[in-house]
Amino acid sequence: MRDLAILACQECKRRNYTTTRNKKTVTERLEKVKFCPFCRKPTTHKETK
Known about the structure:
By secondary structure, the chain is mainly β. It has strands at about 1-10, 15-20, 30-35, 40-49.
C-alpha cells in the first residue's frame, strides 16, 4: 500500500512537495534533492508528518 509523503525543505522548512512511498519496502524517511522555489536553488527535502 502506498502512502502520501510530504517533503519539506531543510533550509527554509517549508513544505513544497508531495510524493508517495511504499511503507513496507521503504521504512526510513524519504530524502531527495529538489528545487525549492522559496530558496530559489536545489536543496535537500526530507519527509515530514
